[in-house]
Amino acid sequence: MVTSTPQQSPLPAISKTLHHQIAIVGGGAAGIMTASLLLKNNSALDIAIIDPSDKHYYQPGWTLTGGGVFQLQDTVRNQRDLIPQSTTWIQDRVIQLDPDNQAILTQTGHKIEYEYLIVCPGIQLDWHLIQGLPEALGKNGVTSNYSADYAPYTWELIRNFQGGNALFTFPNTPIKCGGAPQKVMYMADDTFRSKSGVRQRTNVQFFSPLTQMFAVPEYSALLDRVIEEREIEVKFRHNLKAIKAETQEALFDLYDDRGNIVDEVSYPYDLLHVAPPQSAPDFIKNSPLALPHSPYGWVDVDRYTLQHNRYRNVFSLGDASSLPTSKTAAAARKQAPVVAENVLALIDSKPLLRHYDGYTCCPLITGYDKTIMAEFDGYRGTPLSSFPLNPVKERWIMWKMKTTVLPWVYWHRMLKGEPFEGDYLKPIQWKKR
Ligand SMILES: Cc1cc2nc3c(=O)[nH]c(=O)nc-3n(C[C@H](O)[C@H](O)[C@H](O)COP(=O)(O)OP(=O)(O)OC[C@H]3O[C@@H](n4cnc5c(N)ncnc54)[C@H](O)[C@@H]3O)c2cc1C
Q1: Which fold has domain 127-277?
Q2: Where does the record place the FAD/NAD(P)-binding domain (predicted)?
Q3: Which atom of ligand 1 is found nearest the CA of 328?
Q4: Index of the ligand 1 atom closest to the CA of residue 56
Q5: Cα 337 to Cα 34, 83, 178, 182, 359, distances in angstroms
Q6: pTM of the complete model beyond 0.90
Q7: Which residues lie with the beta carbon below 6 Å from any ligand 1 atom?
Q8: 155: enclosing H helix or E strand
Q9: Which of 49, 123, 389, 429 is at a distance of 20 to 30 A from 149, taking alpha carbons?
Q10: Where are the domains positioned within the chain?
Q11: Which residues are known catalytic residues?
Q12: Which residue has the least CA distance to atom 3 on ligand 1?
């Protein structure tokens, strides 16, 4: 996980130069999948994955950790056990990208030259953009499932809540898993109703700078009904800007229809779950690979081939890429085969024929036995389903899918580059009429 570092440190002196045919920056969901797929096609490839972390997290499991269904250790494996065997793992942090010289620089001063580069270091959590948040996190009622450090604290807060104001916020930037800020809220609401019985004396409130619950209208309308049934108060056009931990107040900018700030409002909290602002990691923002004129700094790639728009030997996928779809592991799963096939085509001087179609999925947990399996075409904003079932519905079977099948699929199939299971059900899949 990347957390922003506001001050830039000086670059280290180069102590060693290495060379690999393919360098993959980031060994998360996207990086491991892509390496596995490349090697399935050609086991002789010389691939290096550069990633400093010795742990690999199944981040979708953090929602379940915050909801008391998983322990944090259920969401983590040793990175060493997941990196494909014939791959070189360089356990180091990339700090500079130099695509003009086909080289990257790491924190310990290693220069890694490459012929092909795949950039997938995930997203950066910009906690510092909310004043008072870094100091407030992890104590006195302030938490976030966006970090392994605090997801267990979310459950501690929910479980022990005695009533009052329970606030859940969505930031004013693109984020990974756009549903996560509200999934935790429905689990909290369920717990307050059925387990702890404090719902009668609790205000559950959702704050978002947006004007709808979800990007796809069909899912958004269904969530509106969920919100109404549960008597959750929704405050649109509210952007969390500061936390006053000493008085337990959350300060919001209030936007008008055109996104101008028109007021500042303050709400007291007893429990505050924050989804932080997010952007591409700083070393991408500060590199020639970044999308020009964007404050977020995503890697500027073609939305179909996933090839960089200016550097032909560079590809990107996953949360760090500029792909205009919802940032999820499910999306990365459909992107990885495209990158693998197109990199191999480029090596063979063939045209890049494989295209990504914008597929993504955000299983929206709406309670302890209900989930909306929100699959959709992120380029058109329309629902999709890998199953012979209408996806625009809360279902028990999808809760089982989310809590048991998907984690297994992640560790045992996705990371190993196995084909997408939904493809086997194609002839009987639900289709929007
Ligand atoms: C609370 C939560 C709930 C979620 N729920 C879902 C869900 O239900 N369904 C779903 O599909 N997705 C979900 N996601 C999103 C999903 O986890 C991400 O979209 C997915 O992990 C993206 O894969 P990635 O490889 O791009 O990034 P990551 O998996 O984050 O991996 C990035 C890797 O890059 C490494 N790295 C970082 N910086 C550097 C550097 N400077 N140099 C080298 N390596 C670096 C990191 O150590 C990490 O291993 C959720 C995420 C969260 C936080």
Answers
A1: FAD/NAD(P)-binding domain (3.50.50)
A2: 21-133
A3: 19
A4: 49
A5: 7, 17, 23, 30, 13
A6: yes
A7: 2, 25-31, 50-53, 59-60, 62-63, 93-94, 120-122, 145-146, 176-177, 180, 281, 283, 318-320, 327-330, 332, 361-363
A8: helix 151-160
A9: 49
A10: 2-123+280-347, 127-277, 359-428
A11: 177, 362
A12: 60
